[in-house]
Design brief:
This protein has 157 residues and is α+β, with helices and mostly antiparallel strands. It has four helices and nine strands, in the order αβαβββββααβββ.
């Protein structure tokens, strides 16, 4: 019995602590040309109508769900987002244009799954161009470039 406790402590001691964020907030990003950011972002968008099917998992302090869904994309900035939970429970849909959800049913479920529409686009592998007047910053370490778009109180890396 003592040996199993010693082994467990040894294993826990070897486990790394909390992993660092993928994009540290303290990075020194330099101001960038908005036109270059728009060109890069537009290159991530599909050139024709596209459907992406996916499986999803969601967890918050109150619940844990999983299911499947589909995003039907109409370039350059529109999508229909459908999702369904296990056994057909928790189904919903939304229509998104740009960074706004025009319609969602049920709205409360969609807002809990997608707190920020720009993050939905990013989760699908696409980046909406920054809005006119947004702060644009970049850190380029070839072959990687980290872009930061700052709009009022909202920041997306």
């Amino acid at each position: 019995m003592k040996l199993s406790y010693i082994g467990a402590c040894w294993l826990l001691a070897g486990c790394p602590g909390k992993l660092p964020p993928l994009v540290p907030i303290t990075l020194a990003l330099a101001p960038a040309d908005g036109a270059a950011a728009v060109a890069w972002a537009r290159a991530t968008l599909p050139s024709r109508a596209t459907a992406i099917r996916f499986h999803w998992k969601y967890q918050d302090p109150d619940r844990r769900w999983g299911g499947r869904g589909q995003a039907r994309i109409a370039p350059p900035d529109s999508l229909r987002f459908d999702y369904v939970g296990p056994l057909g429970l928790g189904a919903g849909a939304a229509v998104v244009v740009g960074d706004s959800a025009l319609w969602a049913d049920p709205e409360k479920n969609f807002r809990s799954l997608v707190p920020a529409v720009r993050m939905l686009w990013a989760g699908l592998g696409m980046v909406l161009p920054p809005a006119p007047g947004a702060g644009v910053f970049v850190l380029q370490v070839p072959p990687v470039a980290i872009w930061r778009f700052v709009e009022s109180a909202d920041t997306l890396d």
